[in-house]
Amino acid sequence: MTIIRVCILITNVIICVCNAVSEKQIREAIRGGASSIGDLRAQTGCGTNCGSCVETAISLLDEHRGEDSGSALDVLNLHNLSPA
Description:
Blueprint: E1 14-16, E2 21-22, H1 23-31, H2 37-44, H3 54-65, H4 69-75
Antiparallel strand pairs: 1-2
Helix pairs in contact: 1-2, 1-3, 3-4
């Protein structure tokens, strides 16, 4: 019997299901200057509906800055998660 291993690289994972915002779109916004969840909301729509994607979006921001995602989550004002 031959076992074949296949590695699939998913390059366009949806992070914000409500607004169909992909990881690629979030990373592009970050590279383009987005530096806060507010910036990502304004540029991509990520986090403007149910908010379940906010933690992941913040992790991507922190990853870009080279920080631990817990640092931003500690100071995140959860009252600001509701859409404007």
